[in-house]
Amino acid sequence: MTTSAPSAPPSASSPAPPFGRALCAMVTPFTEAGALDLDGAGRLADRLVRAGCEGLVLSGTTGESPTTTDAEKSALVRAVREAVGDRAAIVAGVGTADTRHTVELALAAEKAGADGLLVVTPYYSRPPQDAVEAHFREIADATGLPLTLYDIPGRTGTRIEPDTLIRLAEHPRIVAVKDCAYDLLGTQKVLARTELAYYAGCDEQVLALRAVGGTGCISTVANAAPGPFRAILDAFEAGDTAEAARRQQRVIPLIELMMSSGLPGTVTAKALLGRLGLPAGPVRAPLRPAGREVTDGLLAAYEELVAA
């Protein structure tokens, strides 16, 4: 009787992770009076890194970038860099609807100590694809930092089309995509034709995207539960796809409550962090805090997850 050789680990290759694999889209902590809480930001960043986050994305959607000032964005990068040192990559959100302003923020983030930039598609004006491409190229040409393009048409109103991404991948400083497009076919088209590192920006797609050649995740839910998301990726890398699937399924109840409850992830993340006694503080208007019932549900789902 012959026995077959043990099965090999998953062969879904992915580009080298420019900022690590498990990243958190970190909230921006505020004081109860609404000011930037730099001490709290440092403490939260340190906790996230100690719990397995290899990178932190600051001043993104979850970081309330539309309601923080340019000076606050730079101060946040400096405070988090001081807190984590070289233990994690720092990716600074600098995207705006204005190309000139985005370049200014990119240069400021580079000066403040960021390792990379997150640049969202220009919103509201809904530029055509040639203008979208020119926008990203101008920012990439203006800075020495690598760029992650943020494709989230549900918020911006404009997609970065796959063919546009394929052309942009030729730029040496455009290295990654935060994928919130909900277009797995388009994503696979880009993955097949470029070396762009794809990060799942939708927490329910972490394993699915990694399995087709994605790099990792930029997770909102990781603000409260960083370990479970790192564990999904670790299980996959170890070749245990069944365990990776189990771990992805375990986080679905918390993902659903945080990301599909009708409230922005910033609101639910800060509500849960507050109940856990972690730095977060209030959201800035026009966002409003989550109610008691929502927060109680988030806490129950979190406790069930960490007890599993």
TrEMBL record:
Binding site for pyruvate: T62, I218
Keywords in alphabetical order: Amino-acid biosynthesis, Cytoplasm, Diaminopimelate biosynthesis, Lyase, Lysine biosynthesis, Schiff base
Name assigned to this protein: 4-hydroxy-tetrahydrodipicolinate synthase
Subunit structure and binding partners: Homotetramer; dimer of dimers.
UniProt pathway: Amino-acid biosynthesis; L-lysine biosynthesis via DAP pathway; (S)-tetrahydrodipicolinate from L-aspartate: step 3/4
Coiled-coil region: none
InterPro entries in alphabetical order: Aldolase_TIM, DapA, DapA-like, Schiff_base-form_aldolases_AS, Schiff_base-form_aldolases_CS
Gene Ontology biological-process annotations: diaminopimelate biosynthetic process; lysine biosynthetic process via diaminopimelate
